[in-house]
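re: ur msg from earlier - yeah i can do the zinc ion complex, just paste it... oh wait u already did. ok heres what im feeding in:
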Amino acid sequence: MAQRGSVEISPRGGGEKRADSCPACGAPMDAEELAANLRVCPACGHHFPLSAGERIELLADQGSWEEIATELRSDDPLGFYDLRPYHERVEEAEYETGLSEAMLVGTARMHNMDVVLAVMDFRFMGGSMGSVVGERFWRAAELAAEARYPMVAVCASGGARMQEGMLSLLQMAKTTCAVEMMASVPVPFVATLTHPTTGGVMASFATLADVIVAEPGALLCFSGPRVIEQTVKEKLPEGFGRAESNLEHGQIDMIVPRRELKDRLVQVLGMLE
Ligand SMILES: [Zn+2]
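and the outut:
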């Protein structure tokens, strides 16, 4: 059923800078070996981030991905400036990632099943959700509802795009309405939460899915543990906010290792349909 042999992950790709050793177990890392293992540490199973392109490569049947809403680009209605202008930061993210935004949406097939994919990339301004991410998610949901295709979202986000101010927070309401639209048809919506999924994305569409899947060890919470510790002035329990803790507390439905992800998603979508 799987097409594992056809998945090609670039040794230079991924969502983080190339490491010489695994941050979880310290095992020395060979980039080629790591890539061949879908960027999962062969020694301890630590899941390194993937780029949006690698995610699509992992999930979509070969040659089936067709991106939509590519023309949408971030505006800068506030003329926002922190240390540098917002538009400059967006341009830099575009240049560094080769992407047009922090979320790519489109249609694909997964083991011959037509699906709509919405895939986030943490490298693009921390996977933050601005107006374009919200609009792309909306259009993906609209397409899913019209075509009656199930939707699979892959989340990786630091939260709201603060440079867009209130417009960014509005995307939480907008994506929530998009999930509601899919539910009213109904078409199945499954979210895959990857490291890290936090803030406004965690508090909106990511946790509204019919089935919520996570990768092992992923940090999934509204605020990061360090922020919470500083706020409540208490030491948090070991593993707070991690996928395993979320599963234990009923916040997510299952944890699926990357190598099994495509098969399991297709299986879940088959049951929902
Ligand atoms: Zn390791």
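cool cool. The chain has one domain: 50-272. ping me if u need the other ligands too
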